[in-house]
Amino acid sequence: MVILGICPSPGDWPLSCFDLTQRRESVRTLAWAHHLQAEREQPARQPANDAASDARQRVDLALQTLDYTQPPAPELLADLKRLVVSHDVDNLVRRRAAIALARLGSRAPSGVAALKQVLTEVKSGKEPASTLLWVLPALGRYGSLAHETAADLAFIAFDSHYPEEIQLSAIAALVEMGATREGLAVIEKLLTNRHLPLELRTAGMQGVIAYRQEASILLPQVLRWLDDENFALRAMAAEAIGGFGERAMVAEERLAAMFLDDPAPLARESAAQAILAISPQPPPWIINIYDETMTEIAKVEAAMSSGSLASKAGQLSDDLQAELALKLAALRLRQLEILQLMGSSRDWQPMATNSARPQGAADLTQWKLWRARFEAALKSDSLKVSLLALEILLRSNTLKGVEWQPVIQRGLFSTSPEERRATVRLFQKYPWDAQCQIWLEGLLKDLQGQALQIEDQAPSVNSQAPAEQRLETLQRIDGLTDRQVVQQAATRQQRLLSQQMAAVRAAIRAVETRKVPAP
Length: 519
Fold this sequence. Notes:
The chain contains 24 helices and three strands. It is mainly alpha-helical. A hairpin with a 4-residue loop joins strand 2 (16-21) and strand 3.
């Protein structure tokens, strides 16, 4: 996404930049940056022209109450344009006027002429190149009204005489003003040259993402980036292909290979989303891959639990167990990613309830196939998988007839705080009926009973004779008595029970808040 920051307050200066957020990683190149404090500390140049001074004063007053959703008064518009092209006021004042024009956009179309005049003066050497850092973003904000400047922006984007931040600003403006022939040519050059700095290559791919189907002519160039060594660029390439829609169906096989084999989670997720974006229906191979994954999981689990490993030499058995454990973790991750993909990217509820609409029969078939797999996933050894499958069924409002209680009990009673919180969130996000509340209250009573039993056992442990305690201490290597061991175990159990009861109470409060009304 190319972001042109325009500040809501006329006194604040914005940041206009390329901001690529990659789940946990950000590549940010500033196109223009001036902090408000720097402006206050820098002494403003006194206007040498009385007309410019008067215009500045009028603009200062007008901008305090200017409604950017309405066309400005002709006098204010004239003053803004005069300040943009004036050499008799400080650059910060000119920048402020340019920002105001950019915010007005189509409500002040004549402002493009003033910005274009400054652009021409930069090219002729009458203005310093640094002026472009506020002229270019303002032109980009004008959109199609500034298309006539696209050729100049394209020239700046590849002119090595300009600093990289100015080149990036030109590319950002080309992308923000919408698809143009010059903009597509710039993006194509950026995609073709793999020796450019990462920031410029990222800017090119962001341009493809922004143009969407208007850039589908660049599909061959984008496909080559699916093999780039940078996982972020691979993910961006997949996202760009998804934006092409059905025009990119030829890329389905490449995206499928990326989804199955790419080592980066971000790239796999982007490929999966792109597959669903270019396909009117989930391709049948997804369900085949899911079934093959489940078959492999069953084989690995059987191998890990069989006695054949135990009969081998100790070190060899340990190595095989570790190898199988890694393989099982990878298979579980693939299962989880496919479930996340199908659960978040498909609106199952209409498919399950409305088969009369066009394509309804095919959708209903898809739903039946996947519902069987969602219900089977509830019994998975992985609680994360079971909770995800349960959430998909909750979201599709098809929980009736499903044995969800074992999954919820596993989640609320888990020793992992994250798993307990994830289970409680299901009650906070989705409505449950009164029967669920009754069941939860029964769980809470059971936990309270267990806590009382542990408290009742404490006096019998403390009554052990001192002589017996000393003998036990001598017999144990760690120096702890059995009484101390029991006390520590009881303390841990009490703490866990307290945490479990807190989770159940939180679930009950959520049910009371979002309870389904009685019929």
